[in-house]
Amino acid sequence: MQVFLQTLIGGLSLGAVYALVAMGFSLVYRTMGLVNFAHADVLMIGAYTASTFYTSTRLPFAVAMVSAIAVTGLIGLVIERVLRPLENKDVTLMLIGTIGFGMVLQAVAILIWGATGRAVPSPVKAAPLQVLGLRIRTYDLVVVAVAAVAVVLLVAFLQRTKRGAAMQAVAMDHEAATAVGIHVGRSNAIAFAIGAGLAALAGGLVGPMLYVSPTMGGTLGIKGFAAAMLGGCGNIPGAVVGGLAIGVLDSYAAGHFQGYSELVVFLVFTAIIMIRPTGLFGETTVSRA
Amino acid sequence: MSHRVGPTRIGSRAFAAVAMAAVLAGGCAAPGESKDSGSSGSGPIKIAVIDAQSGQLSSLGKWEYKGAKLAVDEWNKAGGVNGRKIRLDVFDDQGDPTVGTTLARKIDSQKYIAMLGTAESAVTIAMAPTLRQAEIPNIASGQSPGMVALKSPFLFLNGPTSTTYDDTLAKYLIDGKKLKKIAMISNNGAYGKGEHDAFLKALSGRGITPAADEVVTTDQKDFSAQLTKIRQKQPQAVFIGSEEVESGLIVKQARDLGITAPFAGAAPQGTPVFRDTAGVANVEGTIVSSPYLSNDTSDATKKFAAAYKAAYGEEAELHGAKAYDGAQILLTALKNSGVATGRKLADAIRAVRYQGLMGDFAFDQTGVGISATSIGVIKKGNLVKAEG
Amino acid sequence: MSLSPRRFIRPAGLVALVVVAWALPYGLGGYAIHVVDIALVFALLAIGMGLAMGIAGQINLAQIAFFGVAAYATAILTTRSGLGFWTAAVLAVLATGLIGLLVAIPALRMQSHYLGIVTLGLALGFINWTTNAELAGGADGISAIPVPPLFGVDLSSEYLYYYLEVVVFAVALAFGLFVARTSLGRRMRAMRDDPLAAGAVGAQIPLLRMTAFLLASVYGGVAGVLYAGLVRFVAPDTFNIANMFLLLAMVVIGGRQSLVGCVIGAAGLSLVREQLVDHATYAQLGFGVVVVGMVVFAPTGLAGIPARLRGVLERRRGSAVRATLRPFQPYEPAGETERDDGPPILEVREVGKRFRGLKALDGVSLTVCHGEIRGIVGPNGSGKTTLFNVVSGFYRASAGQIALAGRPVSGARPYRLSLLGLARTFQNLRLFDDLTVKDNVLVALDRTPTRAIWRYVLWPVAIWRRERRLDHRADELLARFGLTEFAATRPSSLPYGIQRRIEIARAMAGSPRLLLLDEPAAGLNGEEVRQLAEIVRSIRDSGVTVVLIEHNMGLVMSLCERVTVLAGGSIIAEGTPAEVVGHPKVIEAYLGDSAMADLPLPEVTQ
């Protein structure tokens, strides 16, 4: 029982990170119908920038995070600008384009920070909490709290602000949105920038939990993407649920199947997505004959 | 659309004729290049370092190149071997065995007479058949018993194998400290698997069954499930078979989960990367089996560390030291044999008796030259020799 | 056209290639030939990737795993089970094909990036398995794979191995090109451009997707076997995601829709990678930049650049001779013998269709007799297109039955209906944009069931012969519709009116018994509408029944013998045009609220 609950806690804290990654994917997907394969590498750049600001310039962690978000937001804008000619035309090409961007970002990170990576000291020094024999890391609580705030803010932005409403409209029908005077390009750029910012948030938070290296994006990205699909691509609350689900699945698979956990995670994921191709909360996308 | 129809009848006849000719000619004279050992002549002696210079494991590769280069520079400064300078070139295998096999052919066709590296057993194993065929001696720095199993007369190790590391460790923990409950956590990569098997063997040889035997993947991030299981067994020590970063994460999470038992492992657990990833407080008391505990072990190591620092402006560590030893042995063998190549050079390497940074080298038929390690304990972030 | 110099250039080029391929090893060192051997393996992988991704439009990020499955299967069967190399090789390719079919199952349910991530996940799962399994040698891999024996030829020599690879490669490329340029490839390209329309002209989408993955995996399998025989060692690291993305870069840079392009990309990048082996980070940076650049500026890759240049030049020069639309040549009228015999050609009985509680169709019954021209009219959102979608198998009816010439076909898939003699056009044109006009027609002319693709392996000559027959018939059909001069053009570059006519020609290519036209006059000018009426009449006179949805009441009045009026998902009137126009309900419906938007059609997941 204790193993069960402790595994659940471990899975949930990692799941919070997957949820942040999945939210970034989903936001870009719902607005542009594009899956950004460079997302995980933007995350990695975010992790590096945050840790660089935090460790070498001794900025407070929160300030370092905000700077990292600003930097990656800019990268997001650049990616969107370069790939704009393909928007609403060929999804496959854009997807390959983002894979190309991912390769570039990784190479750039190696050139700047070296291939070996670095450890980031935890900004929260407090000892783990003890509840009924279970131990909960204080830093994990911070991560979960930040993720929760990010979800609330994002949903509020999309539903309560004019800009957010415009993005919703573009998500539903970009031609109609253009017709009512919404600047689709700008809306997409903002989506991309916010998505990249979310990646940096995830990267910055995950730095002290794990280890920052040029290849750290790999599994985080693929599992984050799987989480977004599990929740229904484009659905923000779904991405959160999907993220937590993948995190927990990951942890239990590691406990039960040991070295084979990765195989098990992807088989389970494939099975679920076969049964519900639109994810747990996804809606059928609309296209006309 | 007529161009879609393809070759016309005349075309296909010509095609067949040429194909015939090609087959016949190919049968008569196989292309290829004449075998030439490249030892004669008075140019520089070409030695290749093959190691990962890019990718995640490139730090090992870079350290190794620095260590080997230090030794070669010393010899060149002293006039080289038999009056010939030594040229050391580095190749990047990217940690990929396929690239390794290509590089093995490359150094063969470019007439390198010996090779140092790689740090990764899988790459070394992939290259071994080609190097054996080309008769290029290779002093590798992996530690997997899998390399020994190849029984190649051209393959040597510049350090002990996992068997030695873990046997020494088990001896210290069980015979010395009289521990009974030992848990294991290791990854499924080449290194982790080798460590797992070697330590398990050392334990069962002493009649001990591990209290827990958990396997993780090389990119696992959360270890709560496995560590909680280990915690429930209340072991007296936890053995880790994993690389620097992952070991660091495991120890950090283990301490957060309330595991207080000391950790024990081989070379990676003695490194700064491990210490920094886990945090200095968390690694206190970690028991490490290594042939090179610190730069202050002996006069030789102090001298090496000083030279290393002077050359590269950074602290020396195990991998650089191993590569330095390997290069010294190779150069000594070249000198002893009058710059022999191929099998003669391999025999000369096997005959070298060398007192190095790792200990006293004496190669046996399997290519292993060192069969002892020392035990160290991490105290306040530094690895010091264990008492007793 | 038949005397073009291409006829002579092609064979000459082939001969030159053979000579170069044969002489190449004589100029290369032992290391260089190894590099070439590896490049050939990647080229084979790239062909498989090109077939699945470029031709069939299936995003397959598991190609590197197919490669791995075959290499591992060869290694395991030779070293663990003691089989001979070639026996193991055959079994390995079969096993890979089987794995390919398994990986294809998700493709039946999802497409594009969804498929991408699922295949990527499965590839990661495979690497994970090889790293763990004792059988696969764990992370250390399997060494000492035996040298493949070949009638006493020593294949441990890289040079002789090269010749083996070149022969296998040439056969594989030839087969790939044969597939891509004949019936199967055409159908796969049609499916890539528009799966719905491809289904409507008789392409069996699920089977085609399976075939695409089967082809990809078999090419991956052959590459894997050659790799195992060449390197004689396998380890998980060789099949990692970075190499998958490298393979993707090869295919994109070379040009994914052209197999030759894929080969050039693979060979080129392999060689460049080798040159830059000591600068791997810069190489990665370079590949990334080139991929992004290619995607934005040259989406068709290196292989597409000549065509793009030609296009630019022609636009500069302004094509000397403008292609023109020729008049339609009427069909031979069929005899009156069949008329009014047997069951009605289309019988719709009490059909209903709901979308999440919204009734799009409710109790619709309709009988169309042989040789009729039936008009279906109604305000926007009255369910006309929904009715067509139900009849042509795009939607499954929630209630009721449909019979085609007396044969119950409720719930049949579009390709089945197409083979039974139903053809349709679409309200928003659905031509295959990356196929030429002629290929658009050829896809529909090809009436063989998709399962007949076994002939590609066992009796390719039959395919070849049939291609020539189809080619001839396509020329005839294009001539009849006055489209001969556009045969080699892509439809998207043509004016709207011509595209409409192409779509009708494509629908007629399947020699249907029943033709459904969804707003064929939309967007046409007066003269074009007149031509359309003439075409439709001629089609009817040739013995094909026509049902058309139309808003142009003038056309409906002059063309249709009977008219059915839909409103709010139900039939409110039926009769001759004159009867219907005066019907009070019809007047009410048309005067009433018609602002209701057309009902959207949910995406059909095949």
TrEMBL record, chain A:
Keywords, comma-separated and alphabetical: Amino-acid transport, Cell membrane, Membrane, Transmembrane, Transmembrane helix, Transport
Membrane-spanning ranges: 59-79, 91-116, 136-158, 189-212, 224-248, 260-279
Keyword Lyase in record: no
One Pfam short name: BPD_transp_2
InterPro entries, A to Z: ABC_transp_permease, BCAA_transport_permease
Alphabetized GO MF terms: transmembrane transporter activity
An example Gene Ontology CC term for this record: plasma membrane
UniProt topology in membrane: Multi-pass membrane protein
Domain of life, per lineage: Bacteria
Locations listed in the record: Cell membrane
Predominant location: membrane
GO biological process terms held by the UniProt record: amino acid transport
Homology family: Belongs to the binding-protein-dependent transport system permease family. LivHM subfamily.
PANTHER family: ABC TRANSPORTER PERMEASE PROTEIN, BRANCHED-CHAIN AMINO ACID TRANSPORT SYSTEM PERMEASE PROTEIN LIVH
Protein name per Swiss-Prot or TrEMBL: Branched-chain amino acid ABC transporter permease
Source species: Actinoallomurus iriomotensis
TrEMBL record, chain B:
A Gene Ontology biological process term: amino acid transport
Keyword Signal part of the UniProt annotation: yes
Origin: domain of life: Bacteria
InterPro entries, sorted: Leu-bd, Leu_Ile_Val-bd, Peripla_BP_I
Alphabetical UniProt keywords: Amino-acid transport, Signal, Transport
Repressor is among the record's keywords: no
Domain (Leucine-binding protein) ranges: 44-379
Signal peptide span: 1-21
Family: Belongs to the leucine-binding protein family.
Name the record gives this protein: Branched-chain amino acid ABC transporter substrate-binding protein
Organism: Actinoallomurus iriomotensis
TrEMBL record, chain C:
InterPro entries: AAA+_ATPase, ABC_AA/LPS_Transport, ABC_transp_permease, ABC_transporter-like_ATP-bd, BCA_ABC_TP_C, LivM-like, P-loop_NTPase
UniProtKB keywords: ATP-binding, Cell membrane, Hydrolase, Membrane, Nucleotide-binding, Transmembrane, Transmembrane helix, Transport
UniProt-annotated location(s): Cell membrane
One Pfam family recorded for the sequence: BPD_transp_2
Top-level lineage group: Bacteria
Domain ABC transporter as annotated: residue spans: 346-593
MF terms (GO), sorted A to Z: ATP binding; ATP hydrolysis activity; branched-chain amino acid transmembrane transporter activity
Keyword Transcription regulation part of the UniProt annotation: no
Keyword Transport: yes
Annotated transmembrane regions: 33-52, 59-77, 83-105, 112-130, 160-180, 212-235, 241-272, 284-305
Recorded GO CC terms: plasma membrane
Membrane topology of this protein: Multi-pass membrane protein
PANTHER family: ABC TRANSPORTER ATP-BINDING PROTEIN, CONSERVED COMPONENT OF ABC TRANSPORTER FOR NATURAL AMINO ACIDS-RELATED
Protein name as catalogued: Metal-dependent hydrolase
Biological source species: Actinoallomurus iriomotensis
